[in-house]
Hints:
Mean pLDDT: 91
Bound molecules: zinc ion
Radius of gyration: 29 Å
Low-confidence stretches: none
Largest sheet: 11 strands, mixed
Number of strands: 24
CATH topology of the largest domain: Anaerobic Ribonucleotide-triphosphate Reductase Large Chain
Structural class: alpha/beta
Number of domains: 4
Helix content: 40-55%
Number of helices: 24
Distance between the termini: 78 Å
Strand content: 5-15%
Amino acid sequence: MTKMIIKRDGRMKPFDVQRIRGAIDAAAKDYYGASYCFLDRSLINLCVRNIVNHIDILDMDSIPVETIQDIVVEELRRFDIGLSNCYSNYREQRSIYRNSKSELIDAVSGLLDFTNEEVLTENANKQSQLVSTQRDLMAGEVSKYISRTKLIPPHLMKAHDNGEIKIHDLDYYLNSAYNCELVNLDDMLQNGTVINKKMIEKPKSLRTAMTIVTQIAAQVASCTYGGQTVSLSHIAPFVRISQERITKKYKEMNLPISDERLQELIDKELKDEIKDAVQTFNYQVSTLMTTNGQSPFISVCMYISEKPEYEKETVMLIEEFLKQRIAGMKNEYGVIATQTFPKLLYFLDENNTYPGSEYYWLTKLAAQSTALRMNPDVISVKKMKELHGYAFPPMGCRAFLSVFKNENNEPIFYGRGNLGVCSVNLPYAALESGGDLDKFWTLLGEKLELARQVCELRYEKLRGVKASIAPILWQHGAIARLNPDDDILKAIDERGFTVTIGYSGLYETVKYLTGQSHTTKEGFELAEKIMRVMRDTLGNYKINQPHLRFALYGTPQESTTGWFSDKLKKRFGEIEDITDKGWITNSYHIDIREEIDAFEKLNIESKLQRYSTGGAVSYVETNPMADNVEAILKLYEHMYETIIYAEINFESDVCGVCKYSGVMDNDPETLDWVCPVCGNRDQTKLSVVRRTCGYLGETTWTKGRKLDILNRVKHL
Ligand SMILES: [Zn+2]
């Protein structure tokens, strides 16, 4: 007769048959629900007797608790498979719960003693050694833990843990926050706003307007976890207000000078004010630290004709932003380095793309800035209008809204956002199919369905949340003007927020299924079909759930690239060119190691980007371009004609010890950056700026992302 139980932690406890009965009873109530009755209970009594006999036969003085549970599953299976499975799940759940709890403690201690590398390097823009950032990261770990054990159903968590899908931003899932947005600055500046319970009226000068914009940016960033975009055309009216004020001032002085001289004085003073205002913006955005432990992830929209009545003033602001970006910003070592924020989005249009067009001079300035600072990135007004009918910026990094019209049938873009992302690991479906194409389509459908459920959860999680949770967003104009007690879903529905399903690794998927890269005819046909099937599947979801505006998104996968790769390797082993590289290729991109000309790359990728309605961005990798502005202008023209959104990448590094400015070496053993001039390998004294995703990042990345960065070949 067994007398003692060995618990998981090794301690001993007397054997108690009532505990077994209790656990089966709980599983049975769960399984049968209301129909659980006396008859079932008598069967369970019989089963418990069998279990006790089974244990007795083993004739052990003490027995591990896991062995007992195995016996329970086995005996239950003899007369009720459904109940047996239910008990098994219950047991698995308890085990996940136990493991998560110790994982939480390990994760938090790992943050504090700097051994939790995964979390410490996950976001290239967070300085994880700072005490303020550590508080944000700790909160993130708690959020992950509670989401995992209490909020997200086990089958979705399991798919995430397997790496079939990735539920992004679990570190913010616990809060009622969403991802990213286009800030409705126009409304906030023109009609006033409230910041930290202080009323901010319509500003009377550009200088004040710009200061308010940076305060808004910081507040918005603290209430969300993704990026935001502000548009210069919304600030342009304040250039005119300042101009009118300066003109009035000079006219009242009645100076004994000519009209031309008077105009010169006015122009000079206005220019000075624009310069000051833009400088304020740049320094504020680069030095602010939000409650998320980082600078606001902010993009600036530079679309000359967005507000035609303020075209001239918008151009003046764009010009100054570009000039200051070219001039650069000194880093902590006093060396001019590439600024990571704000990201600049320059719109190529019929009035600025080709030589001879009205604002071509401004585009030349943009190209000069791109050549030096990897910014601005470009958006083709022509391609956007062809595909969507309108041109509008992405929200921060790359997430694009779909066109949405309000009750007056007018399209609205600003004051809208995206609720969150769940990505599908395409190579997972491919490898699971074993190369059987029919099976692949079925599996792809299943993974998309899992992602759909995650997106639906994100929406439902915001039900009943009141506007007062983030006044700047919901009450004071960044998104809406609700009352404090209104439900935020009202604004989310009325303003057509999107939810996004992302995808990664089209290259690996096509390579595995066809043996070809998608730059070949056969490979491309499958690649395009996968994109089309995903877009159409999301379209069908929308028919059943019109309130969820599903958008297909080329996942930026900062750290996801290595994460997906590791998961695939664990499940399917090492497969040449698929799981042996350490990274998974970004969205629909062509293999980063494939030798291909920049123009051809954009041609092929543009045909895939068009399906990615929730956003995506193509890269061109080049050698440092400082002396080749002409080449950038040619690339701009090609981008204007072919692709919605593209970026030019090159290396741009500075050594803090010897002040060398150029390209750092990388030690293949440790993946550490090394200065080729003085040999400095102190990572804290090197500024290595690379395109991480849509944003630029500096020096620290996860291993998978570093491998991706190091293996990129040049296209020009
Ligand atoms: Zn050096």
